[in-house]
Amino acid sequence: MDVKEPVxxxxxxxxxxxxxxxxxxxxxxxxxxxHDGIVVEYNRAAETVFGFSAAExxxxxxxxxxxxxxxxDRHRKSLAHYLQTGQGNIIGRRVEVHAITKNxxxxxxxxxxxxxxxxxxxxxxxxxxxxxxRKAAEEKIREYSVKLKAxxxxxxxxxxxxxxxxxxxxxxxxxxVAALAYAIGRELGLDEQRLEGLYFGGMVHDIGKIVVPREVxxxxxxxxxxxxxxxxxxxxxxxxxxxxxxxxxxxxxIILQHHEKLDGSGYPNxxxxxxxxxxxxxxxxxxxxxxxxxxxxxxxAKGMAAALDEITQxxxxxxxxxxxxxxxxxxxxxxxxxNQNDYTHTDFVDLAFMKVEKALG
Length: 361
Description:
Elements: H1 4-25, E1 29-33, E2 39-42, H2 44-50, H3 54-57, H4 69-85, E3 95-100, E4 106-116, E5 123-130, H5 132-166, H6 173-187, H7 192-203, H8 214-217, H9 225-232, H10 234-242, H11 251-257, H12 278-293, H13 304-313, H14 321-333, H15 352-360
Antiparallel strand pairs: 1-2, 1-5, 3-4, 4-5
């Protein structure tokens, strides 16, 4: 007998003991399978999380042990694909999947799979972490966010209704502006978050009129200098009212800028070009179209043709050219009816804020 053999055996046993200690000290579940999908290593954390002992798990197919039935065929195909091509969609990545415990309870887990090639046939080590508590916490945060968002929506709707009570002649103006602005933003390909901001910015863009004297709002004659001055203050007044509210959208800026023009001819600050945020430029177009199209105390409605002529004439000069083009496509080509499109109609059932209300219900 070679005298080196006992030494090598002792070294092997020490290495194996060290490996087992390392395996079982991990807080993550560690499960190794061979190229046939058979479990060959299964640590203590896996026993705790999944309920199977190592003796029960080792020698069994992984897909029949902890993989839910609906995912088993996909697992087998992915394993076969890797063995054939050396490529796998989840290899080396952290992914969230579901696993099943011994008592049949399905749990969310974070999974990383790494291949090992000790010989001709690869082995695979799966590192799994039970994320049930994290998912539960995320769900509570989501529910809180939904409720908070719903409260913001109710607040905005209440404020909008209050403004219209003081100015019944333009009742519906803000809703129509909000709907058209949303539609323009959607036509321009804005994301859901910005579309929400457009809608709710439109819903309260005239909040500053709450301090404009009622007699000015309902004056049927030509407005004098003092009346116009009072009205010109409403964007800045509205900004002051809402600037301290932590909306997830730039509502205060939209209110402040909705009468600014690209060429600096607007008010209250005479901003130019890109100094005006896109949301405000869109709402300006929607506001002008609705105002010209509809009646006012001091004049009759001019109609949609006049409204489109105005924004087209000043496209790229006073009004954002992309917003103008999108508005014209909506009305000329897609039949958008400014009187039949607000949050109560079917065109808007897929709005994100409507989804919030459904989730709460």
